[in-house]
Amino acid sequence: MKRLIPHPLLSLALILMWLLLTRFSIGQLLLGSMVSLFAGWAFGAIEPAGPKLKKPWKVIPLFFIVGYDIAKSNIDVARVILRGPRPGAEGPGFVTIPLRLRDPAPLAVLSLIVTATPGSVWINYDPDTGELLLHVVERGDTDWHALIRDRYESVLMEIFA
Amino acid sequence: MELILSAAIGVLSASGIWLLLRPRTFQVIIGLALLSYAVNLFIFSMGRLTVGVPPIMPKGGFVDPTRYADPLPQALVLTAIVISFATTALFLVVMMASRGMTGTDHVDGKDKD
Amino acid sequence: MSALILSYALAYAQTAIAIAVCLCCWRLIRGPRAQDRVLALDTLYASTMLLLIVSGIRMGTSFFFEAAVIMAVLGFVSSVALAKLLFRGEVIE
Amino acid sequence: MIEQNLLLILVLLPFLGAIAAATLPVNAHNAAAWLSGLTMAGGLVILAGFYAPISHGQVIHSVVQWVPAIGLNLGFRIDGFAWLFVTLVLSIGILVVLYARYYLAKNDPVPRFYSFLMAFTGAMLGVLLSGNILMLVVFWELTSIFSFLLIGYWHGNPNARDGARTALVITAGGGVCLLASMLLLGQIVGSYDLDVVLASGDIIRAHPTYLAVMVLFLIGAFTKSAQFPFHFWLPGAMAAPTPVSAFLHSATMVKAGVFLLVRFSPVLGGTDIWFYVVTGTGIVTLIMGAVIALFRHDLKGLLAYSTISHLGLITALAGIGGSAAILAAIFHIVNHAVFKASLFMAAGIIDHETGTRDMRRLSGLIRMMPITGALAIVAASAMAGVPLLNGFISKEMFFAEAVDWHNGTWLDNALPWLATFASIFAVAYSARFIMSVFFGPAPVDLPRTPHEPPHWMRRPVELLVLICLIVGIVPDQTLGPVLNAALGSVMGLGTPHYDIAVWHGFNQPLIMSLLALVVGALLYALTGRWVARGPEGPPLLHMIRAQKIYEWLMLRLSWKWPRVVHGRISTEKLQPQLRILVLLSLAVGFTALWNSGFIGPRAKWNAPNLAFGLMWTVGAACAIAAAWQAKYHRFAALVLLGGAGTVTCITFAWFSAPDLAATQLLVEIVTTVLLLLGLRWLPRRRSEIMADRLLPARIRRGWDLVVAVVAGTGLAAIAYAVMTRPLVPNIGDWFLRNAYYEGGGTNTVNVILVDFRAFDTFGEITVLAIVGLTVFALLRRFRPAPESVAAPEQQKGSTSKMLSNYLFVASVIMKYMFPVLIVVAADLFFRGHDLPGGGFSAGVTVATALLLQYLATNVKWIEARITVLPIRWMGFGLLIAGATGMGAWAFGYPFLTAHARYIDLPLIGKTPAATALIFDLGVFALVVGATVLMLIAIAHQSLRAARMRETDDDTKPDAKKEPA
Amino acid sequence: MIAAQHLVIAPVIIPFIAGALTLLYDERQRRAKLGVSLVSTVLLLVVSIELMSRTKGAGLTGQGGEIAFYLLGDWTAPFGITLVLDRLAAMMLMLVALLAIPALIYSAAGWHKQGQHFHALFQFLLMGLNGAFLTGDLFNLFVFFEVLLAASYGLVLHGSGQVRVRNGLHYIAINLAASLLFLIGVSMIYGVTGTLNMAHLSKLVALLPESELPLFRTGAALLGLAFLVKAGIWPLSFWLPGTYMAASAPAAAMFAMMTKVGIYVILRLSMLTFGVAAGPSAGFGAEVLVAAGIATVIFGVLGTLASQGLGRMTAYQVLVSSGTLLTVIGLALMGGGEKMLGGALFYLVSSTLATGALFLLIEPMSRGEGGIAAILALTADAYGLDQPEDDGAPEMGLAIPATLTVLGLSFAACLLVLAGLPPLSGFIGKVAILSGLLHNPALPPMLGWGFLALLVFAGFATLIGLVRIGIQTFWAAEGPPPKVLALEFAPVLMLIAMICLMTLKGQDTLRYMEDTAQSLLNPAIYANGVLTAPSVEEEAARQEEGTAQ
Amino acid sequence: MNDIPLWLAIPAAGLLVIGATLVLLGASGLVRLHSFYQRMHAPSLITSWGTGAIVLASILFYSGQAGKPVLHDIIIGVFIMITTPVTMLLLGRAAVQRDQSGADQPKPPNPAP
Ligand code: NA
Ligand code: NA
Question: What's the whole-number average pLDDT of chain C?
């Protein structure tokens, strides 16, 4: 079973995607399942096992947190664009944050969150030291260490085993 | 719209032709790509311009052809896109090989004009 | 009424996005560095995709969906390749 | 009937003999000689059978149809003239065969010689016997070709090669002119039948093209019979083995020319221009040949110029025309053949025995080889025109014509004098031949000690000399009847019968002969020593050698000037070629538009949209910027190209072509990556190329800019003109109406691609497959420039760790896109028939998904996990598409007939089930295979380069690393 | 059981299947690939013989009975794509097969190992050629042009090396540009007339309103230019000699056919659309064709004389042949008549065979000692290659005695054909053209004479050039004769045998050609036939009706 | 378009305006901001709520038109969110490396050994 369906969750998500792409019908469900199972199976060749999940439901609050953060940052960055960035240490610059996460998968999710949020870009993660280099558009108001480590990283550490 | 599109065809093809006449292989390949955009648009324009009526038919019922875009130029462009993709790839590899063997990226395989 | 509101909104959206594309293009041409161009192209891509969606709504067809999906799902591939070339001097090793 | 067949056999026999001889082993000297001799003897037997009817003025015809559609038939005819000529050819041929048997050396490839000789004889007989003037040209050219092979028989000798080539170029070139004249004759007369042509002299002479016909004809005849100014090939041809010279320059090759002159003189002759040109040329050749012959030191050279001179005599006679002149011409043809053949053979014996042909070294040979000497002396006397020998009689006849015949022109009045003058020299060179070779002190320092040759080598000479004597003494009894028959066949009915007598009384011609003999002898006696000391050729005149002029001219005409002109009107460079193509398109396009009047635009257009206009501002800016940057900033150009492509894609979507938009996008993505992959192998361009700043480059760029702008404007104008006119009723409507009902799909474009015009797609996927294969094949042999083998600058001093760190996070997302993209591809594939999408889009999507994995990791990593055999995919894809197409045959339908219906499946509902879907599956498989193949083949080059670097480092451990 | 009517498409399908099949074999299984390729090519010959015999109807009296149609997908013209097999197409198919077998055999002597996928490319080339000759649809013609061009790109580059790549680059660049022109032309014609079907087009041209003519003619002219590039017209042919010379021998031999595709299309389309029935457009472009043809002949002749090597010279001979044919097509548009055109078709076939044979002769003729291995090593060297990667065991084959003699005779035969000297087919062809031209009162006599002078001049120059090479090779060469394998001789001899057969069967061949020309000059038969060809369904319906009554 | 109920049309129009404005802002940031690293932040306006708003508007519109939820445009939003960061990640890192090797650009802290 594991060999045939190495990524059941992924396949499920893909079926959902299939139904979104086409239309909801039994036939499409069947076809979509076949396609999705195949896609999952093919992915198994690249990545034999997916990440282990501990508390996957925690992704739902995270989703809303991130959605809110992004909306807020939209306004911040829009302001920066309209007014120009603040000068000096308040303004744009690089920020280094030591991370506790080591697994690529949660790190990837973190990178998505950080980068999708306007105002911060994930520049580099050093797997040896666990240090994250960010570029932020305003170093001033935000405590980036706290934001990343407490607001996102800790949740991710809960979700992923 | 017709004027805009024909101007677009003109600019694309002029840029493409100018590059086609340049001495470096990469210029030629970019020129060919631009030219093929121009030609694809040109073929496409031969079916006249229609906005918002793709040639996708209802399932059954009377079909009034004048209400839809001419599908044939579209089919031709599709074939042309694929073929020009293939030939671009080929030209690229020949360009690489020529550069490797002659030591220059000049189209004549030697740097001296 | 719906039509009126929507058509104004759509006209605005279409024009605004088109202007946005022009701005991307300015950066694309201007550079000055390669990474600027890649960034501009990626942005241009995303904006164009949105223009596609908006135009689809304006024309009342949903046939642009496929193109938009392709742009969303695959558009980043060329940007990735471009970025990788900048970083490594090579796209695939 | 028998006669017709015999005639065919007569022509065919030598060719058969030639083929038989060619198959003999190299050392079969005797067999080859016997074969040739018997073949020719067989021909003579057939001729003997023809004698009776021919002598009664009968003409025997035989026709085999070859290409009657163009009047090209193997028509043969034999009349008196042809009979006489063929007999001469075959008789001398037998003697040459016999002679050659002893002449050729042990290690010469003898069967080849006989084979060529026989083939040549066959061609010669063909010329003589053709009853179709086109066939005559055919055989005429064959004589050129085989004589070329014969002259070049000893091709190890450069002189032989040059001589052979000159002979071929001159005579075959003449033959081409002859062909032209024959074609024109055929047009005038309406037939290529020789009999018809011969009977149409009046029509021909009155025709406006008469002059052209005559000139072309004469070029043909003069080149062959070595008339001035085409004479020089003949001395050059003396590099041939002597038997060849004896054959070609006595009875055959050169005589073909005069044969033609005589044959056609009643048709083309009789006009003043004919007389001036033909007789004039003849006389010039006669004199020139005679004079030069005296000054040649080489025996064969002397004989060669003598031959030229005698051919001039015959030509002059043909120019005069009339029965008596023609009779003299025919008679002299025979006589000259006989004595000249014997003289060549004698010269060959002398060469063979002494090892030299230089008359200055030869002397007093009469003591060592008295019989040969005597024979040669008799033959040379015949050549000089000594009475009681055959040469005398025909020369007398020529003198008589010169004296008696009048047409009142200055040339006519000068003829006797000119004839006598030439004769004096003929006597002188004959005397020189006799005196310097056979008399005088014993020779010293010869390469070989001379003695009499083998008996059988001398027999032919003996026989020929005997004929000289007999004909010289009793001409009328021996040759009278045949000559008259020949004359009758040339001149037609009502030709008077001529008695050929030795003695005509003490008349003017005899005086001329005696004068020539005396003065000639004196000339030699007085100048002999001086001539021997002089150069090879007449004083001063030897400086102007026709051969040299020919070579000078030939070198220029056929090599130097063509090279110069060719260089001017050609180029090896790509840019001018493309420039010409663009300019020609412009010219062609504008001319076609211009000639047909102005096209005014009609009012039919869509209201402009601001957003669309802005998009194209972007597109145009990108295109222009890409053009601007492509030389020094390739990367920027590539990115800009992407911008232009995106706008193009939007345009497709805007104007109702969602399929195009999707496909354009996909292709653009793959193309960008492909180009990026290639970018790595191009030379780095850090500094500006200096020449770019110079004026020529600026002018070139400016000019190209003008061309490009004009061309772009032209294309835009055409597009505008078409777009703004109302749509004509077109076949597109039919597709719209029938897509759903007949094609079983709602997406008309897709139905066209996989059903209505699936054959296009069928070809298109083949193109993709071919390109994939070519790319693969080329890259298997790819050799990067040394500069590109080195790691890119960015990787200098970096480890592979750096790459994995770089991709550490990003690769996770990229990998997860793989299954997503497979699902997207499947969606595109299945919906294609009804909505935008299809096998091609799906295929590119899958290929891109795979490509993404290569980008996310590295080649080794990914290939350890996923094995794609792209070429197999391509093969299966093609076979699926082909098999789907052929599946229709089973139901009696043509290739690619699709069957479409919606099937009601339980649970699933109405499902489209078109065989077109299977076809699309083939397309899908192929596209995946081809795209992946191309991408991966290029990508692998980096791996190879890395490996090359490693082996380099291994082999050169202490080689310094390039400074970064 | 496959019904006989499907044979029409066989010339496209057979090489397609063969090409696809060879992809399933591993690269090292060359013998298997060769086998597939050979079977396919021989089948092609058999099929083309059968197809040709089908078109040998009773000429004009047959009223189109000798033309076969194949409606792809069972869609009737002008909507679907129709294959049309008439005499001209059958003749070209035959010529392809006749050239392909020798080229393939020749490749088996070693060339097919000098790179990847030779056999697949070769088969796809055949597919492209055959498709181009059969199709009755303009855009489908484009597709098959691309198929054959793509395959030719592959074959030009087969074996790789500096010379091939450099020339290949030019070849590809120019042909890509020409393909774009092709597309512009085709789409303009569609935009103006609304059709892609050649037969339909031929009907529509005469009905085209005055106002549409300019655009239509521009489209046609641009299209024509694209074909002229393929046909190698001066001044668009500078790429040709280098490319042909660089190509490996079997590829070059097939290339003898490539320019003929351009010629074929120009002939086909000009007769269909600008023939006498085309109304105001009749004779469009004739003068251009004549002028360009003459220029090309002159250029080819100059090139022949200016060349040092046989390869280049042969390539220029290809141009001479092209120019001659184009001139004749132009004259035919002016009313030159079927005799002249028939002669030109005869000339086309014979010159193609001869140039093909010459391309195969180049290598053995320029080879010193050591057989094919030496020449391959030598070319690898000259072409700037490091090492052949996948050399198998050296090719075993029978070396031929009397090598020089056979080579020399073969060379001489080619020379005679190309120079138009008797007695071989080249002479018949030229005489047929000229006598057709001279006997035609429709054309001004000066034209005939001028062309006569041109042909005479061209033939003579060819003779001079080729004799120079021949003497250098066969007479001036020192050292022992080269080793040549039977596999290399046999193909040349096959081609020469074909030439000889054509010569002997001159009357029959020429008659066929003249009939072909006659039907070309009456495009209505073709057009009506295509437009009324019934689909299988219609046929069935009609039969049902018949039985009902 | 009048078949869309007003209660859908108004939020859809609003979302369109917001989305388009964000797009315009993002693109102008690309032009206005001074250094590459600053400019990197601008597009995220487009790819986050710019896209989100327009996609939502589209969902509202098509759902209103069809009279039932038409959600497939979600996919576009989701994948834009997922894929754009990949580019940014790789591009940002590449820019840093390029700046370290280039002399005339401001140097960021050394991110990696
Ligand atoms: Na961000
Ligand atoms: Na002497």
Answer: 91
What 3-state DSSP class applies to D192?
Answer: coil
Which ranges of chain F does DSSP label H, i.e. alpha helix?
Answer: 6-32, 36-39, 43-45, 51-66, 73-101
CB contact under 8 A, D871 and E436: no
User: Residue E387: pLDDT above 60?
Assistant: no
Tokens of D67: 């290409």
The CA R_g of chain A, rounded to the nearest whole Å, is 19
Residue of D816, D859, D863, D932 to mutate for A, most A C-beta atoms under 10 A: D816
Residue E350 has pLDDT above 70, yes or no: yes
The C-alpha atoms of residue D765 and residue D927 are separated, in whole angstroms, by 7
Residue D843 to residue D931: CA distance in whole angstroms: 8
Under the banding of pLDDT at 50, 70 and 90, the label for residue E31 is: confident
Average pLDDT of the residues in D715-741: 86
E452-470: pLDDT as tens digits: 889 888 998 998 888 888 8
Residue D67 sits at φ, ψ, to 5 deg, of -125, 75
Q: Are D626 and B22 within 8 A, CB to CB? A: no
Closest Cα partner for E163 from E248, E246, E249?
Answer: E246
How far apart are the CA of F41 and the centre of ligand 1, in A?
Answer: 6
Flag if D820 and F85 touch (Cβ within 8 Å): no
| pLDDT at residue number B57 | 83
The complex scores an ipTM of 0.94
Q: Is the CB of A61 inside 8 Å of chain D's CB atoms?
A: no
Other CB atoms within 10 Å distance of the CB of residue D504: 13
Smallest Cα–Cα separation from D777: which of E173, E22, E160, E393?
E160
Asked if residues D165 and D224 have their Cβ atoms less than 8 Å apart, the reply is: no
CA distance D825 to chain A (A): 10
- B57 and D736: CB-CB below 8 Å? yes
Whether the upstream peptide bond of residue B55 has omega within 30° of 0, thus cis, is no
| Measured distance between the N- and C-terminal CA atoms of chain A, rounded to whole angstroms | 22
pLDDT of residue F13: 94
Query: Which of E101, F86, B79 has the alpha carbon at shortest distance from A121?
Result: F86
Phi (first) and psi of residue D817, to 5 degrees:
-70, -15
- Per-residue pLDDT band for D215 (boundaries 50, 70, 90) equals very high
Average model confidence (pLDDT) across chain A? 88
Q: How many B×D Cβ pairs under 8 Å? A: 344
Q: Residue D499: how many CB atoms within 10 A of its CB?
A: 9
CB C79 within 8 A of CB C49: no
Percent of chain E with pLDDT over 70: 90
Contacts of A21 in chain F (CB under 8 A): 72, 75
pLDDT band at D600 (very low <50, low <70, confident <90, very high): low
Written as one letter, the residue type at D153 is Y
> CA A156, CA A134: separation in Å to the nearest integer?
18
Q: Which of D223, D385, D255, D360 is nearest to D301 (CA)?
A: D360
| Chain D partners within 8 Å of A31 (Cβ) | 830, 908
Which ranges of D106-157 would DSSP assign to H, the alpha helix? Answer: 110-129, 133-151
Q: How confident is the model at residue E429 (pLDDT cuts 50, 70, 90)?
A: very high
Determine, for residues C26 and F95 on separate chains, whether the beta-carbon distance falls below 8 Å.
no
Chains that touch B (3 or more CB pairs under 8 A): C, D, E
**Cβ of F28: how many Cβ atoms within 10 Å?**
20
Confidence of residue F112 (pLDDT cuts 50, 70, 90): very low
Question: By the CB < 8 Å criterion, does D883 face chain A?
Answer: no
Q: Do F89 and D793 touch (CB under 8 A)?
A: no
